[in-house]
Amino acid sequence: MSASPAITIDDPADPRLAPYASIRERDLVGRRGRFIVEGEVTLRLMLSPASRFRVESILLSPERLPGLGDLIETMPAPPPVYCASRAVMGAVAGFPMHRGVLAVGLSGAPPEPAGLIPPAPAPATVLGLVGLTNHDNVGGLFRNAAAFGADAVLLDDATCDPLYRKAIRVSAGAALTVPFARTASPQALLDLAARHDLVSLAMTPGTEADIADIALPARALVLLGSEGPGLPPDLMAHCQRIRIGMAAGFDSLNVATAGAIALHHLLRRRCRL
Amino acid sequence: MSASPAITIDDPADPRLAPYASIRERDLVGRRGRFIVEGEVTLRLMLSPASRFRVESILLSPERLPGLGDLIETMPAPPPVYCASRAVMGAVAGFPMHRGVLAVGLSGAPPEPAGLIPPAPAPATVLGLVGLTNHDNVGGLFRNAAAFGADAVLLDDATCDPLYRKAIRVSAGAALTVPFARTASPQALLDLAARHDLVSLAMTPGTEADIADIALPARALVLLGSEGPGLPPDLMAHCQRIRIGMAAGFDSLNVATAGAIALHHLLRRRCRL
């Protein structure tokens, strides 16, 4: 058995811990190509082949080292593992680190949106997010995309970053595994769908067609907008508009929940092909 | 037009504002029969006939008074309305009050669980929550219960309070409108279901029966447990176990999302009766 690969650090000001400094404040300004992962489940996912992201470094408290250090040691090219007490971790991060597991990932070059769409005529389910600025909702939608086997998530220019710390956490790590890319505008999403034989479905309470009643296409781009304003009307004018049937007098669902129901129906349709 | 009913208060220590003091700290210890409502949408809901809760008092910033004061004035027996600057509101509450709308509701006597179940042989959809301690999830489940027309929500002894401030907010106010009651234990939930001709459905990934394939009962208690441990096996042994079909290799959904999908299927079934 080889020696533990971990490097013990006692000084919160050690420059190797700089990417972990003032985590919440840095969340707000962004990290230019880096992102923070918290907790064992998400770290294991980022170290697995399911994740396309490179791990720059890992920071563990001594209690977490036995469980995770062994895993990391068996990797062909393991990233540096730093070990610091929870007190030092908390001093660096700026808040208490109860879980004692942090890592820095590298975003890498963003993929081309077109490359994430399965080529026709194969079935395809792509989620399109328009103007979603709430990290919980975006994280929840990635979790649901993974649960119901969406091939990719495409984001318009106004939707927030799925690699934001809280979005990764709410996604249960799915933001690291479900392929995603950004388009220049909501219209660019529609153009891309048209070029790749995807039917654009706009989820909206303001229509008669119920997702549980209509024939769903084998290749679909499911578009979701934010809860208040919804999808822009000029965008919906070029889509098949679909609602989720609700109790009388109620037309309000959380957007991640609406996405889950739409993706569940599309997965059912796909399983019957 | 009558004079404005609002009572202007400039002193954060005014005893009439005591129920609004240190809101976050008081969230943790509970309020013994009182709860806090934030924001205009939720306050309007609490003042409407859809809510069964009495409003003890309302606290508005001066800018919110014209829009809401008029509504309150037309009520037959309006609660006291206090008006304070956002600075005073923030000083009382302990954090900035951007929305400038707060109210104190009275929980009243808890209803009998049995009284919330529609009598047989009418269709009935009741949600049963077991060991759910996350306020976001409980709030989300109330929102979904309202969206998909559940008749009631029954909570076991370990599930958290739907009238907790954050649960009300996440529920979009549905915690004030969907009837709920608490039972002494998970087993008491099952006993109640049996006495009222409800089929107990346990949502769990560990079974073959897919909710989209099976014949659903017209009278159902849908049981949901927390995301990690799920429902207790000895409880599930007395239930019909049902799963939500997911992509291969994935068996994880947020519990509020799982509830939405189950309730959506039950509403569809009920609409076809």
TrEMBL record, chains A, B:
Keywords for the protein's UniProt record, in alphabetical order: Methyltransferase, Transferase
Gene: rlmB
Superkingdom of origin organism: Bacteria
Protein source organism: Methylobacterium thuringiense
Keyword Transmembrane: no
Domain tRNA/rRNA methyltransferase SpoU type residues, every copy: 126-264
Protein name listed in UniProt: 23S rRNA (Guanosine-2'-O-)-methyltransferase RlmB
Family matches, as SUPFAM superfamilies: alpha/beta knot, L30e-like
Keyword Methyltransferase on entry: yes
